[in-house]
From TrEMBL:
Residues 131-214 form the Thg1 C-terminal domain. Its EC number is 2.7.7.79. Belongs to the tRNA(His) guanylyltransferase family. It comes from Deinococcus navajonensis. This is tRNA(His) guanylyltransferase. PANTHER family: TRNA(HIS) GUANYLYLTRANSFERASE-RELATED. The keyword Iron-sulfur does not apply. GO terms for molecular function: nucleotidyltransferase activity. It comes from the Bacteria. The lineage of its organism: Bacteria, Thermotogati, Deinococcota, Deinococci, Deinococcales. Its cofactor is Mg(2+). Residues 9-122 form the tRNAHis guanylyltransferase catalytic domain. The keyword Nucleotidyltransferase applies. Keywords: GTP-binding, Magnesium, Metal-binding, Nucleotide-binding, Nucleotidyltransferase, Transferase, tRNA processing.
Length: 259
């Protein structure tokens, strides 16, 4: 067998390497902490820990920067990063994007936390802008549902209920029941910090930075970009409207890339 045939035969077995995200689709990369139920157990306050959330925000920031996303959203142990249809990083190769986003999240979180933690990653694709709004509404309602469950569960546990008792009390119960359970114990769910109930959004904002023209010595204003961390996101229809405004801001960029 000559070298070329040998090389071609083995390279062809990198079977999934040619797999690319369909052109023209919106993309979300979602990373999720591996085994974080266990990882968080002894290290962080239940049901929510501000320090844990800040580690997730630091990780989301790194993903947004590294992959040049347009919006990131984090809740619980997951982070979703949105990319416009025109995004072409790594030629949209699935293996590259999935492995590098998981690697970036794992390395960033581990360095910030000081303990080894790993993330998995997956790709979501959306055909229309409405799909994108629906996606983030879906993740946000997951955040709200988990926050209510978590608060109800850990409140019962702190009262001395066993795992089985707390689970049984909440099994198949309505949202109203869980809200009432908390209310009777002096916790108004709607007054808990917004980041716990609605998640945290990250996006680019522009600001004017004053500098000096080295040639003329004159003061000049330059536009710079920075990441805004929004811990007070709106919810439901207001969240969709908020996201829609952010997507509209991207339109010139998307049109330009299509030309
Ligand atoms: N203590 C604590 N735990 C948290 C916090 N935020 C998220 N978690 C936990 O992170 C876990 C995330 O759940 P999952 O991603 O479904 O479970 P997992 O154990 O990570 O499992 P895989 O993702 O399948 O590997 C839940 O058990 C949450 O309670 C927090 O602020 N504090
Ligand atoms: Mg997880």
């Amino acid at each position: 067998m000559n070298n070329d045939t040998f090389e071609a035969r083995l390279r062809a077995l990198e079977y999934y390497h040619d797999l690319k995200i369909v052109p023209g689709a919106w993309v979300v990369l979602r990373v999720d902490g591996r085994g974080f139920s266990r990882f968080t157990q002894e290290r962080f306050d239940k049901p929510f820990d501000d320090r844990f959330n800040r580690l997730m925000v630091t990780t989301a920031q790194a993903l947004l920067e590294e992959f040049q996303g347009v919006y990131a959203y984090t809740e619980s142990d997951e982070i979703s990063v949105l990319f416009p249809p025109s995004w072409t990083m790594f030629d949209r190769e699935v293996e590259k994007l999935v492995s590098l986003s998981a690697a970036t999240a794992s390395a960033t979180f581990t360095l910030a936390c000081g303990e080894r933690a790993t993330f998995d990653s997956r790709v979501w694709i959306g055909v229309t802008e409405q799909d994108v709004l629906d996606y983030f509404r879906w993740r946000q309602s997951d955040a709200t549902r988990c926050a209510l469950n978590g608060w109800a569960y850990w409140t019962l546990r702190q009262e001395g209920a066993s795992v089985a008792e707390a689970t049984r009390t909440l099994e198949s119960q309505t949202t109203a029941f869980k809200n009432e359970l908390l209310y009777q114990r002096g916790i108004n769910f709607n007054e808990l910090p917004a980041w716990q109930r609605r998640g945290v959004g990250l996006y680019w904002e522009t600001y004017d930075k004053e500098g000096m023209n080295p040639l003329t010595g004159q003061r000049v204003l330059a536009q710079r970009r920075r990441i805004k961390v929004d811990r007070d996101l709106p919810m439901k229809d207001e969240y969709s409207a908020f996201l829609q405004t952010r997507l509209r801001l991207l339109e010139p960029l998307i049109r330009e890339d299509k030309r």
